[in-house]
Amino acid sequence: AGGHHSATAAHARRGWRPRCDAPAATPTPPPREGGFWAQLKHGNFGLAQTYWLYLFLPNAAINVFVKFVENSWVLLLGSAASAYMVPALLGTWRAARRYTGFGLWSGLALFACVIGWMSLALYVITLFKVLAP
Fold first, then answer.
1. By C-alpha distance, which of 9, 18, 115, 97 is closest to 50?
2. What is the pLDDT of residue 70?
3. Closest C-alpha among 23, 21, 41 to residue 32
4. Tens digit of each residue's pLDDT (9 = 90 or more) over 14-30
5. Distance between CA atoms of 96 and 116, rounded to whole angstroms?
6. Nearest residue to 30 (alpha-carbon basis) of 115, 103, 104, 92
7. Cα distances (angstroms) measured from residue 6 to each of 16, 87, 113
8. What is the chain's Cα-based Rg?
9. Which residues fall within 8 angstroms of residue 130, CB to CB, at 6 or more apart?
10. How far apart are alpha carbons 26 and 15 in whole angstroms?
11. What is the CB neighbour count within 10 angstroms for residue 62?
């Protein structure tokens, strides 16, 4: 009756317990080098700042502004906005994946990113249809 079970039982009698307080695996921290665009695309500003300040507000402002500009400017503005949305969506996604607070916030941000990527894809498809001869 010697074997593995008796060794574990002996450890238990002496007060040994397996470590349960080991830290949970944490996500790899984002790289901190680079300028604003590198920081944005890596989500280094945190979820709240990346989502609200760098994704939601610019997107809302662009959508309002487009309503007041001439049609000739819509193409240019839409193209610039699309180029901006790529790092903003990447950063929001990455910040949401690392977020350790209330889970609903990261889930909603990830959902908003999926909608954002779909919207961006539809815009690019529409742009090619408009520009195609």
1. 97
2. 81
3. 41
4. 554 445 454 555 555 66
5. 14
6. 92
7. 13, 57, 54
8. 24
9. 75
10. 29
11. 16
Higher pLDDT, 90 or 126: 90
Within 10 Å of residue 11's Cβ, how many Cβ atoms? 12
Token duo for residue 59: 């997107």
Best CA proximity match to 87, nearest among 64, 107, 116: 116
Q: Which of 81, 82, 93 is nearest to 43 (CA)?
A: 93
Residue pair 100/120 in contact (Cβ under 8 Å)? The answer is no
113, 89 Cβ separation under 8 angstroms: yes
Residue reference for tokens 């950063």 = 91
Q: Give CA–CA dist 80/96, Å, rounded.
A: 24
Q: What would the two tokens of residue 83 be?
A: 């180029």
Q: Which residues contact 59 (CB under 8 A, 6 or more apart)?
A: 81, 85, 88, 116
If you search the block for the tokens 């209330």, which residue do you land on? Answer: 102
For the full predicted model, state whether its pTM sits above 0.70. yes
The contacts of residue 46 (CB under 8 Å, 6+ apart) are: 95, 99
